[in-house]
Design a protein that fits this description.
This protein is mainly alpha-helical. About 45% of the residues lie in helices and about 10% in strands. It has a 3-stranded antiparallel beta sheet with strand order 2-1-3. The longest helix is centred in the N-terminal third of the chain and has 21 residues.
């Protein structure tokens, strides 16, 4: 086999190692793309400025804020849906991951 980028020869053992890396990459990307509320893949990822590391689906975030007026991660009060920030970086990561898996 040849690498499609550099066209150097590739041994079968190298391909096996790449499969192992791919599985680890899938685990990391899957974890990053999980909604902090529903624990499924983030659909239209958003976050709050108080907890950037706790992304959620836009729908989950709006529903939570509408019912509790608080942050789902730290509990900060007085939150409105206008406080939600689009997490474009995470959206891009999740999109690439899903395209990669398909």
């Amino acid at each position: 086999s040849k690498c499609w980028t550099c066209e150097n020869g590739i041994e079968k053992d190298d391909l096996t190692k790449n499969e192992k890396i791919t599985k680890e990459y899938e685990k990391v990307a899957d974890f990053l793309c999980l909604c902090s509320i529903c624990k499924s893949g983030c659909h239209r990822a958003v976050h709050l400025s108080c907890c950037v590391g706790a992304p959620v689906c836009r729908g989950c975030g709006v529903k939570h804020i509408t019912s509790t007026r608080s942050c789902w991660a730290c509990g900060r009060q007085g939150i409105t849906s206008e406080d939600l920030d689009t997490d474009q970086t995470l959206r891009d990561i999740c999109m690439k991951f899903h395209l990669f898996v398909l």
